[in-house]
Fold this protein.
Amino acid sequence: MKKIQVLGTGCSKCKLLTANVEAAVKALGIEAVVEKVEKIQEIMKFGVMTTPALVVDGQVKSAGKVVSPDDIKNLLV
Amino acid sequence: MTKRLLLLIARGIGLLLVWGLVYWNLEPFSVWLTYGVLGLSHGEHLAAALQFFVFETPKVLMLLTLVVFGVGIVRSFFTPERTRRILSGRSETAGNVLAALLGIVTPFCSCSAVPLFIGFVTTGVPLGVTFSFLVSSPMVNEVALVLLFGLFGWKVAAIYLSTGLGIAFASGWVIGRLRMEKHVEDWVYQTQTGDGVPEAESDWPARIRLGLDAVKDIVGRVWFYVLIGIGVGAGIHGYVPENFMASIMGKSAWWSVPLAVLIGVPMYSNAAGIIPIVQALLGKGAALGTVLAFMMAVIALSLPEAIILRKVLKPRLLVVFFGVVAIGIMAVGYLFNAIM
Protein backbone atom coordinates (compact mmCIF):
# COMPACT_ATOMS: atom_id res chain seq x y z
CA MET A 1 0.00 0.00 0.00
CA LYS A 2 1.27 3.40 -0.92
CA LYS A 3 1.50 6.31 1.45
CA ILE A 4 0.85 9.64 -0.19
CA GLN A 5 1.38 12.88 1.68
CA VAL A 6 0.36 16.35 0.60
CA LEU A 7 2.44 19.04 2.30
CA GLY A 8 1.00 22.49 2.67
CA THR A 9 -0.18 24.91 5.30
CA GLY A 10 -3.71 25.02 4.00
CA CYS A 11 -3.60 27.33 1.00
CA SER A 12 -6.06 26.87 -1.83
CA LYS A 13 -3.46 25.19 -4.03
CA CYS A 14 -2.89 22.55 -1.36
CA LYS A 15 -6.57 21.65 -1.42
CA LEU A 16 -6.48 21.41 -5.20
CA LEU A 17 -3.49 19.07 -5.06
CA THR A 18 -5.19 16.86 -2.45
CA ALA A 19 -8.25 16.60 -4.67
CA ASN A 20 -6.06 15.68 -7.66
CA VAL A 21 -4.29 13.00 -5.61
CA GLU A 22 -7.59 11.48 -4.57
CA ALA A 23 -8.82 11.52 -8.16
CA ALA A 24 -5.63 9.82 -9.36
CA VAL A 25 -5.82 7.13 -6.65
CA LYS A 26 -9.44 6.45 -7.51
CA ALA A 27 -8.77 6.30 -11.25
CA LEU A 28 -5.91 3.84 -10.77
CA GLY A 29 -7.92 1.76 -8.32
CA ILE A 30 -4.88 1.23 -6.10
CA GLU A 31 -4.81 1.07 -2.35
CA ALA A 32 -3.29 4.15 -0.82
CA VAL A 33 -3.53 6.33 2.23
CA VAL A 34 -3.65 10.03 1.53
CA GLU A 35 -2.48 12.21 4.35
CA LYS A 36 -2.32 15.98 4.65
CA VAL A 37 0.70 17.40 6.45
CA GLU A 38 -0.07 20.91 7.62
CA LYS A 39 2.36 21.51 10.46
CA ILE A 40 5.24 23.63 9.27
CA GLN A 41 7.89 21.76 11.28
CA GLU A 42 6.74 18.49 9.73
CA ILE A 43 6.78 20.03 6.27
CA MET A 44 10.31 21.32 6.75
CA LYS A 45 11.54 17.81 7.60
CA PHE A 46 11.04 17.00 3.94
CA GLY A 47 13.22 19.96 3.02
CA VAL A 48 10.75 21.54 0.62
CA MET A 49 10.67 25.33 0.36
CA THR A 50 7.58 25.73 -1.76
CA THR A 51 4.16 24.32 -1.13
CA PRO A 52 2.09 22.38 -2.00
CA ALA A 53 4.45 19.45 -2.20
CA LEU A 54 3.73 15.82 -3.02
CA VAL A 55 5.41 12.98 -1.16
CA VAL A 56 5.06 9.32 -2.12
CA ASP A 57 6.35 6.71 0.34
CA GLY A 58 8.54 9.28 2.03
CA GLN A 59 10.05 10.63 -1.19
CA VAL A 60 9.43 14.19 -2.35
CA LYS A 61 8.08 14.02 -5.89
CA SER A 62 7.17 17.62 -6.57
CA ALA A 63 7.07 20.96 -4.81
CA GLY A 64 5.48 24.32 -5.43
CA LYS A 65 2.94 23.27 -7.99
CA VAL A 66 -0.43 21.65 -8.41
CA VAL A 67 0.31 18.44 -10.25
CA SER A 68 -2.46 17.25 -12.57
CA PRO A 69 -4.19 13.91 -11.83
CA ASP A 70 -2.60 12.40 -14.96
CA ASP A 71 0.89 13.34 -13.86
CA ILE A 72 0.18 12.00 -10.36
CA LYS A 73 -0.82 8.69 -11.91
CA ASN A 74 2.58 8.49 -13.57
CA LEU A 75 4.24 9.14 -10.21
CA LEU A 76 2.27 6.38 -8.53
CA VAL A 77 2.84 3.48 -10.92
CA MET B 1 21.82 19.43 -31.56
CA THR B 2 18.90 17.20 -32.29
CA LYS B 3 16.47 17.57 -35.13
CA ARG B 4 13.69 18.05 -32.66
CA LEU B 5 15.38 21.03 -31.03
CA LEU B 6 16.03 22.68 -34.41
CA LEU B 7 12.38 22.25 -35.28
CA LEU B 8 11.44 23.83 -31.96
CA ILE B 9 13.69 26.84 -32.60
CA ALA B 10 12.31 27.28 -36.12
CA ARG B 11 8.78 27.23 -34.80
CA GLY B 12 9.70 29.73 -32.10
CA ILE B 13 11.19 32.16 -34.62
CA GLY B 14 8.15 31.74 -36.86
CA LEU B 15 5.76 32.50 -34.04
CA LEU B 16 7.83 35.50 -32.96
CA LEU B 17 7.69 36.91 -36.52
CA VAL B 18 3.91 36.54 -36.61
CA TRP B 19 3.73 38.15 -33.16
CA GLY B 20 5.83 41.10 -34.34
CA LEU B 21 3.84 41.52 -37.54
CA VAL B 22 0.55 41.66 -35.65
CA TYR B 23 2.00 43.86 -32.88
CA TRP B 24 3.37 46.54 -35.19
CA ASN B 25 0.11 46.73 -37.11
CA LEU B 26 -2.15 47.17 -34.09
CA GLU B 27 -2.05 50.95 -34.15
CA PRO B 28 -2.81 51.40 -37.88
CA PHE B 29 -5.57 48.81 -37.43
CA SER B 30 -7.15 50.70 -34.54
CA VAL B 31 -7.06 53.95 -36.56
CA TRP B 32 -8.54 52.22 -39.58
CA LEU B 33 -11.32 50.65 -37.50
CA THR B 34 -12.21 53.82 -35.60
CA TYR B 35 -12.05 56.42 -38.34
CA GLY B 36 -12.40 54.27 -41.45
CA VAL B 37 -14.90 51.51 -40.71
CA LEU B 38 -16.93 53.21 -37.98
CA GLY B 39 -16.55 56.62 -39.59
CA LEU B 40 -16.01 58.56 -36.37
CA SER B 41 -14.41 61.93 -36.85
CA HIS B 42 -11.07 63.09 -35.46
CA GLY B 43 -11.20 65.18 -32.32
CA GLU B 44 -14.23 63.42 -30.88
CA HIS B 45 -13.85 62.14 -27.31
CA LEU B 46 -15.58 58.87 -28.12
CA ALA B 47 -13.34 58.27 -31.12
CA ALA B 48 -10.16 58.91 -29.14
CA ALA B 49 -11.35 56.67 -26.31
CA LEU B 50 -12.36 53.87 -28.66
CA GLN B 51 -9.15 53.99 -30.65
CA PHE B 52 -7.14 53.92 -27.42
CA PHE B 53 -9.06 50.86 -26.20
CA VAL B 54 -8.87 48.98 -29.52
CA PHE B 55 -5.13 49.65 -29.73
CA GLU B 56 -4.07 49.18 -26.11
CA THR B 57 -6.03 46.02 -25.22
CA PRO B 58 -4.40 43.64 -27.72
CA LYS B 59 -1.09 45.45 -27.34
CA VAL B 60 -0.88 44.97 -23.57
CA LEU B 61 -2.23 41.41 -23.72
CA MET B 62 0.29 40.46 -26.41
CA LEU B 63 3.16 42.03 -24.48
CA LEU B 64 1.98 40.31 -21.33
CA THR B 65 1.84 36.92 -23.04
CA LEU B 66 5.34 37.31 -24.46
CA VAL B 67 6.89 38.55 -21.21
CA VAL B 68 5.15 35.99 -18.98
CA PHE B 69 6.25 33.24 -21.35
CA GLY B 70 9.82 34.55 -21.31
CA VAL B 71 9.87 34.88 -17.53
CA GLY B 72 8.41 31.36 -17.26
CA ILE B 73 11.32 30.01 -19.32
CA VAL B 74 13.89 31.97 -17.28
CA ARG B 75 12.30 30.72 -14.05
CA SER B 76 12.73 27.12 -15.13
CA PHE B 77 16.46 27.72 -14.58
CA PHE B 78 16.03 29.12 -11.08
CA THR B 79 14.38 26.82 -8.57
CA PRO B 80 14.26 28.05 -4.96
CA GLU B 81 16.79 25.29 -4.16
CA ARG B 82 19.23 26.66 -6.70
CA THR B 83 18.74 30.25 -5.54
CA ARG B 84 19.42 29.14 -1.98
CA ARG B 85 22.64 27.47 -3.08
CA ILE B 86 23.75 30.68 -4.78
CA LEU B 87 22.95 32.82 -1.74
CA SER B 88 24.11 30.53 1.02
CA GLY B 89 27.20 31.78 2.82
CA ARG B 90 27.42 35.03 0.81
CA SER B 91 28.85 38.12 2.40
CA GLU B 92 26.10 40.54 3.18
CA THR B 93 26.24 43.51 0.80
CA ALA B 94 26.90 41.47 -2.35
CA GLY B 95 24.42 38.89 -1.10
CA ASN B 96 21.71 41.55 -0.80
CA VAL B 97 22.23 42.65 -4.40
CA LEU B 98 22.12 39.07 -5.65
CA ALA B 99 19.06 38.23 -3.55
CA ALA B 100 17.16 41.24 -4.90
CA LEU B 101 17.97 40.20 -8.47
CA LEU B 102 17.18 36.52 -7.88
CA GLY B 103 13.88 37.53 -6.32
CA ILE B 104 12.67 38.51 -9.79
CA VAL B 105 13.51 35.23 -11.50
CA THR B 106 12.80 32.67 -8.79
CA PRO B 107 9.28 31.28 -8.90
CA PHE B 108 7.65 31.77 -5.51
CA CYS B 109 4.15 32.47 -4.25
CA SER B 110 3.41 34.28 -1.01
CA CYS B 111 1.82 31.19 0.54
CA SER B 112 5.30 29.61 0.52
CA ALA B 113 6.89 32.53 2.38
CA VAL B 114 7.27 30.58 5.64
CA PRO B 115 8.87 27.36 4.32
CA LEU B 116 11.08 29.46 2.09
CA PHE B 117 12.17 31.67 4.96
CA ILE B 118 13.04 28.65 7.12
CA GLY B 119 14.73 26.88 4.23
CA PHE B 120 16.93 29.92 3.62
CA VAL B 121 17.97 30.92 7.14
CA THR B 122 18.66 27.38 8.35
CA THR B 123 21.09 26.68 5.52
CA GLY B 124 23.38 29.65 5.88
CA VAL B 125 21.65 32.42 3.97
CA PRO B 126 22.10 35.56 6.16
CA LEU B 127 18.88 37.01 7.58
CA GLY B 128 19.23 40.34 5.77
CA VAL B 129 19.89 38.61 2.46
CA THR B 130 16.79 36.47 2.99
CA PHE B 131 14.75 39.63 3.49
CA SER B 132 16.10 41.20 0.30
CA PHE B 133 14.76 38.15 -1.50
CA LEU B 134 11.41 38.23 0.32
CA VAL B 135 10.89 41.90 -0.59
CA SER B 136 12.05 41.77 -4.19
CA SER B 137 10.01 38.72 -5.15
CA PRO B 138 6.53 40.29 -4.87
CA MET B 139 7.65 43.90 -5.33
CA VAL B 140 9.26 43.53 -8.75
CA ASN B 141 6.44 41.88 -10.59
CA GLU B 142 6.53 41.09 -14.30
CA VAL B 143 2.83 41.80 -14.82
CA ALA B 144 3.14 45.26 -13.23
CA LEU B 145 6.26 45.90 -15.30
CA VAL B 146 4.50 45.10 -18.58
CA LEU B 147 1.45 47.15 -17.70
CA LEU B 148 3.53 50.16 -16.67
CA PHE B 149 5.54 49.85 -19.86
CA GLY B 150 2.46 49.47 -22.04
CA LEU B 151 0.44 52.25 -20.47
CA PHE B 152 2.99 54.79 -19.26
CA GLY B 153 6.10 54.12 -21.33
CA TRP B 154 9.52 52.61 -20.76
CA LYS B 155 10.75 55.35 -18.43
CA VAL B 156 8.14 54.66 -15.78
CA ALA B 157 8.69 50.91 -16.16
CA ALA B 158 12.47 51.29 -15.81
CA ILE B 159 12.11 53.51 -12.74
CA TYR B 160 9.72 51.00 -11.17
CA LEU B 161 12.15 48.14 -11.81
CA SER B 162 15.23 49.94 -10.50
CA THR B 163 13.63 51.49 -7.42
CA GLY B 164 11.90 48.19 -6.58
CA LEU B 165 15.27 46.46 -6.64
CA GLY B 166 16.74 49.35 -4.66
CA ILE B 167 14.19 48.99 -1.88
CA ALA B 168 14.69 45.22 -1.73
CA PHE B 169 18.45 45.69 -1.47
CA ALA B 170 18.32 48.50 1.07
CA SER B 171 15.70 47.04 3.42
CA GLY B 172 17.48 43.66 3.54
CA TRP B 173 20.79 45.43 4.12
CA VAL B 174 19.38 47.52 6.97
CA ILE B 175 17.81 44.47 8.65
CA GLY B 176 21.17 42.70 8.34
CA ARG B 177 22.96 45.64 9.99
CA LEU B 178 20.45 45.69 12.84
CA ARG B 179 21.50 42.13 13.81
CA MET B 180 18.00 40.92 14.48
CA GLU B 181 18.63 37.17 14.37
CA LYS B 182 17.38 36.78 17.94
CA HIS B 183 14.02 38.20 16.88
CA VAL B 184 13.37 35.22 14.68
CA GLU B 185 11.14 32.72 16.51
CA ASP B 186 13.40 30.35 18.42
CA TRP B 187 12.15 27.14 16.87
CA VAL B 188 13.06 28.29 13.37
CA TYR B 189 16.81 27.80 13.73
CA GLN B 190 16.25 24.41 15.37
CA THR B 191 14.16 23.11 12.52
CA GLN B 192 15.50 20.02 10.85
CA THR B 193 15.33 20.40 7.11
CA GLY B 194 15.51 17.44 4.80
CA ASP B 195 17.00 17.08 1.35
CA GLY B 196 14.06 18.45 -0.57
CA VAL B 197 13.16 17.74 -4.14
CA PRO B 198 15.67 15.84 -6.22
CA GLU B 199 16.67 18.24 -8.97
CA ALA B 200 15.21 17.04 -12.22
CA GLU B 201 17.15 17.62 -15.41
CA SER B 202 14.97 19.93 -17.43
CA ASP B 203 15.09 19.78 -21.21
CA TRP B 204 13.85 22.46 -23.57
CA PRO B 205 10.43 20.97 -24.32
CA ALA B 206 9.83 20.87 -20.53
CA ARG B 207 10.93 24.50 -20.14
CA ILE B 208 8.62 25.58 -22.94
CA ARG B 209 5.80 23.72 -21.26
CA LEU B 210 6.58 25.65 -18.06
CA GLY B 211 6.47 28.92 -20.02
CA LEU B 212 3.11 28.00 -21.53
CA ASP B 213 1.78 26.96 -18.12
CA ALA B 214 2.80 30.36 -16.75
CA VAL B 215 0.96 32.11 -19.59
CA LYS B 216 -2.15 30.01 -19.02
CA ASP B 217 -2.03 30.61 -15.28
CA ILE B 218 -1.08 34.30 -15.11
CA VAL B 219 -2.67 35.73 -18.25
CA GLY B 220 -5.74 33.61 -17.53
CA ARG B 221 -5.95 35.19 -14.09
CA VAL B 222 -5.25 38.82 -14.94
CA TRP B 223 -6.69 39.52 -18.39
CA PHE B 224 -9.90 40.81 -16.87
CA TYR B 225 -8.09 43.38 -14.70
CA VAL B 226 -6.07 44.43 -17.70
CA LEU B 227 -9.28 45.04 -19.61
CA ILE B 228 -10.72 47.15 -16.80
CA GLY B 229 -7.44 49.05 -16.47
CA ILE B 230 -7.37 49.92 -20.14
CA GLY B 231 -11.08 50.73 -20.07
CA VAL B 232 -10.46 53.22 -17.28
CA GLY B 233 -7.49 54.54 -19.22
CA ALA B 234 -9.62 54.91 -22.35
CA GLY B 235 -12.23 56.84 -20.40
CA ILE B 236 -9.56 59.22 -19.19
CA HIS B 237 -7.93 59.38 -22.60
CA GLY B 238 -11.05 60.47 -24.38
CA TYR B 239 -12.46 62.79 -21.80
CA VAL B 240 -10.68 65.67 -20.18
CA PRO B 241 -9.55 64.80 -16.65
CA GLU B 242 -11.13 66.80 -13.88
CA ASN B 243 -7.98 66.95 -11.75
CA PHE B 244 -9.99 66.49 -8.61
CA MET B 245 -7.31 64.21 -7.18
CA ALA B 246 -4.65 66.87 -7.69
CA SER B 247 -5.36 68.67 -4.45
CA ILE B 248 -5.14 65.56 -2.25
CA MET B 249 -2.66 63.42 -4.17
CA GLY B 250 -0.82 66.06 -6.16
CA LYS B 251 2.79 67.08 -5.77
CA SER B 252 2.00 70.01 -3.52
CA ALA B 253 0.47 67.85 -0.79
CA TRP B 254 3.58 66.62 1.08
CA TRP B 255 1.60 64.25 3.29
CA SER B 256 0.06 62.42 0.35
CA VAL B 257 3.02 60.00 0.01
CA PRO B 258 2.96 58.64 3.59
CA LEU B 259 -0.83 58.55 3.46
CA ALA B 260 -0.79 56.55 0.22
CA VAL B 261 1.64 54.06 1.78
CA LEU B 262 -0.38 53.86 4.98
CA ILE B 263 -3.52 53.03 3.03
CA GLY B 264 -1.68 50.66 0.70
CA VAL B 265 0.17 48.50 3.24
CA PRO B 266 -2.76 46.59 4.76
CA MET B 267 -4.44 46.21 1.36
CA TYR B 268 -3.86 43.06 -0.59
CA SER B 269 -4.18 42.80 -4.32
CA ASN B 270 -2.25 41.30 -7.16
CA ALA B 271 -0.27 43.61 -9.41
CA ALA B 272 -2.81 43.50 -12.21
CA GLY B 273 -5.75 44.35 -9.97
CA ILE B 274 -4.08 47.53 -8.81
CA ILE B 275 -3.37 48.94 -12.28
CA PRO B 276 -6.95 50.19 -12.96
CA ILE B 277 -6.73 52.18 -9.73
CA VAL B 278 -3.32 53.51 -10.72
CA GLN B 279 -4.75 54.56 -14.08
CA ALA B 280 -7.70 56.32 -12.50
CA LEU B 281 -5.60 58.17 -9.90
CA LEU B 282 -3.02 59.34 -12.44
CA GLY B 283 -5.68 60.43 -14.87
CA LYS B 284 -7.32 62.55 -12.24
CA GLY B 285 -4.18 64.47 -11.49
CA ALA B 286 -2.48 62.48 -8.72
CA ALA B 287 1.32 62.73 -8.77
CA LEU B 288 3.22 59.76 -10.25
CA GLY B 289 5.44 59.26 -7.19
CA THR B 290 2.46 59.14 -4.87
CA VAL B 291 0.63 56.62 -7.04
CA LEU B 292 3.72 54.46 -7.51
CA ALA B 293 4.25 54.43 -3.74
CA PHE B 294 0.64 53.35 -3.28
CA MET B 295 1.04 50.56 -5.83
CA MET B 296 4.28 49.28 -4.29
CA ALA B 297 2.77 49.33 -0.81
CA VAL B 298 -0.20 47.28 -1.98
CA ILE B 299 1.75 44.58 -3.82
CA ALA B 300 4.82 44.30 -1.58
CA LEU B 301 3.29 44.45 1.89
CA SER B 302 -0.05 43.19 3.11
CA LEU B 303 -1.90 42.19 6.22
CA PRO B 304 -2.22 38.51 5.21
CA GLU B 305 1.52 38.42 4.64
CA ALA B 306 2.14 39.89 8.09
CA ILE B 307 -0.02 37.18 9.65
CA ILE B 308 1.82 34.46 7.74
CA LEU B 309 5.25 35.82 8.65
CA ARG B 310 4.31 36.25 12.30
CA LYS B 311 4.73 32.47 12.59
CA VAL B 312 8.49 32.85 12.11
CA LEU B 313 9.19 36.44 13.15
CA LYS B 314 8.83 37.90 16.62
CA PRO B 315 6.70 41.08 16.66
CA ARG B 316 9.70 43.40 16.84
CA LEU B 317 11.31 42.05 13.67
CA LEU B 318 7.97 41.99 11.88
CA VAL B 319 7.44 45.67 12.70
CA VAL B 320 11.00 46.54 11.65
CA PHE B 321 10.54 44.65 8.37
CA PHE B 322 7.30 46.44 7.48
CA GLY B 323 8.66 49.76 8.73
CA VAL B 324 11.90 49.62 6.74
CA VAL B 325 10.16 48.61 3.52
CA ALA B 326 7.46 51.26 4.00
CA ILE B 327 10.10 53.94 4.53
CA GLY B 328 11.86 52.78 1.37
CA ILE B 329 8.63 53.03 -0.60
CA MET B 330 7.98 56.53 0.75
CA ALA B 331 11.48 57.60 -0.28
CA VAL B 332 10.74 56.39 -3.80
CA GLY B 333 7.47 58.32 -3.80
CA TYR B 334 9.16 61.57 -2.79
CA LEU B 335 12.02 60.98 -5.22
CA PHE B 336 9.60 60.61 -8.11
CA ASN B 337 7.54 63.60 -7.21
CA ALA B 338 10.74 65.62 -7.05
CA ILE B 339 12.20 64.57 -10.40
CA MET B 340 9.19 64.03 -12.65
In short: The CA atoms of residues 27 and 77 of chain A lie 12 Å apart. The mean pLDDT of chain A is 87. The two ends of chain A are 12 Å apart (CA to CA). Helices of chain A lie at 12-28, 40-45, 69-76.
